[in-house]
Amino acid sequence: MFVDERIVTLFKRNAHHTLTYWSVFFSFGLCIAFLGPTILDLQCQTNSTLSQITWVFFSQQFCLLIGSSIGGVFKRTLFSALSALFVSALVISVIFAIIPVCNNVMWLAIAMAVSGFAMGIIDTIANIQLVTIYQRDSAVFLQALHFFIGFGALVSPLIADPFLSETGCGNHTGNGTEIMHHFRNMLRNSPIAEHNITQSHLPHEGGEESNVHYAFWIMALINLPVPIAVLFLMYREQLIPCCPSGTPRLLDKDELAMETQQGAEGSDAEQKEHEAGGHGDIFSCCQNDNLRGLPVSFFMIHVLGGMVLFMTDGIVGAYAGFVYTYAVAPPMSLPHKTAGYLASIFWAAITAGRLLSIPLSYRFQPVRLLMFNLAGAIVTVLMLLIFYTSNIFLFVGTCLCGLFLSSIFPCMLAYTEDILNYQGCATSVLVTSAGMGEMVMQVLVGSIIQTEGSYSFLLCGLIIACIGFILFIGLLVFHRLHRNYLSGTTKKSAMVEEPGPEQNGSAITEQKEEKEEKESS
Predict the structure, then answer these.
(1) Coil, strand or helix: which one is 183?
(2) Is 511 exposed, middle or buried (0-12, 13-18, 19+ CB in 10 A)?
(3) Residues 460, 313 contacting (CB under 8 angstroms)
(4) Average pLDDT, the chain
């Protein structure tokens, strides 16, 4: 079989939990991509400038970072984890529904901040829960989990596109319409908008009436089954106090054949041990008494793993946000409509790459996939720099870049958790580092493009990718050091438990003396 029967059985046993966590990540993707294509309609709705409306993106991403940092605190019990997921998914639907009535940019920024906080909680809890359930087999399921982000990010712009006004909220002709297409396509499918858009007012009276509110209401309805699915899981797990306890579900035949009741109790004890070892929020992890006395390699694995994702997720955010700006500027000078497809192609490649990585993560170790993807990303950006005048290779390179970057996060998460034997705080650290990198790198790359020109876009990407690869090599070195530390600790404990040769000799002498005494008597 292509997939091990043990993996299939493991999935069947945890199918309801797994599918629920996948669905909340669809909410995450749905919420992260809708602002880009609707930004101009929201600008008209709030009567704000383009520079003011971009603070909405910053508020969402900043609160996403905060939510990711403290989301692990809800992992203490299954009830608190599912309750946090239920509230967060429901909040996203509510935010979608109330966005059309936010007629002030401040209220819109607050709404986006609340949604970002909910997204951060979803990001941390869903990753932690899957790692806790599947542990060493979590790589396959993490790849599928992150596929649903890309899927949601693809669905959101498709829903919004039919309701977008082509001329904004005023009559625009000539250069005005061209500039509007430039901003809309530049921001389409991008989690965060550019911060360096020049301050300019667009006319707000007379013209086409926007119907974008229908798109938000449709997305609210599409997302509504997600909190319902979380609530149903809580009902099945008998975690809702007001509902009567149902009869416990029977095990399937393959589950009965796979484990006995003693094995189930052992796995529960092991899970409690893992919960005690870490996987809380990032602040409580730093204060964990169990981390005292651990070697430097243990902490460096956390730091270097987080720094690699800081770089790679930063590339994802920067590329999605600025590839349109690079394409329409010399020497490419692509037509605006043609360049508008680049961001969509990039997100589609990320989605396809995560889907393709599901079987690959079963066949290959995460460290091999990480090495291949990081090297592939560097080679792709280098080729884009070499063929900087080729329009065709820009599209090919965008597709390849999305494919190589797509599975780095879930592979790194599975790799570091495996190194640390699921006892550290890798999930919280990695999720926080990735969100911080996506926010910081977009601001950094955007400011460099503004001062140095569009060509610096690919140069920044190459430098960031090379730094990420160097940090990954450092992670491999500390992995080796940590493995040597663990093997040395195991040998020492084994030597303490084994009786020494002198003890064995004295025991044999005592046995001989007892035997001689019996024979003489």
Answers:
(1) helix
(2) exposed
(3) no
(4) 76
Tell me what pLDDT residue 223 has: 92
Q: Where are the beta strands (DSSP E) in 74-148?
A: none
231 confidence band (pLDDT: 50, 70, 90): very high
Best CA proximity match to 6, nearest among 415, 236, 14: 14
Nearest residue to 154 via CA among 344, 291, 317, 334: 344
Torsion region of 453: left, alpha or beta (phi above 0 gives left; psi -120 to 50 gives alpha): left
37, two tokens: 């294509």
User: What residue type is 344 in one-letter code?
Assistant: S
Show Cβ contacts of residue 444 under 8 Å, excluding neighbours closer than 6 positions: 460
Which of 122-126, 191-195, 396-400 is predicted least confidently?
191-195
pLDDT per residue over 130-166, tens digit each? 888 887 777 778 878 878 888 887 788 778 777 876 5
Q: What count of Cα atoms within 13 Å lies in the side-chain half-sphere of residue 151?
A: 14
The pLDDT score that the predictor gives to residue 240 is 81
Q: State the angle between helix axes of 408-419 and 426-452 in degrees (0 to 180), rounded to the nearest 10.
A: 140
Cβ pair 130, 145 in contact under 8 A: yes
Please count the CA atoms within 13 angstroms of the CA of 12 that sit on its side-chain side: 14
* 492-to-73, 294, 297, 503 alpha-carbon distances in Å: 36, 16, 19, 18
Q: Which residue has the tokens 């020494």?
A: 500
Residue 169, both tokens: 């909220």
Listed as own residue / partner, the contacts of 385-388 with beta carbons closer than 8 Å and 24 or more positions apart are 385/458, 385/459, 385/462, 388/331, 388/332, 388/455, 388/458
Whether 419 and 273 have beta carbons less than 8 Å apart is answered as: no
The neighbour count for residue 336, using CB atoms within 10 Å, is: 18
**Of 446, 504, 417, nearest in space to 132 by CA:** 417
Per-residue buried b or exposed e for 47-56, using 16+ beta carbons within 10 Å of the residue's own CB:
ebbbebbbbb
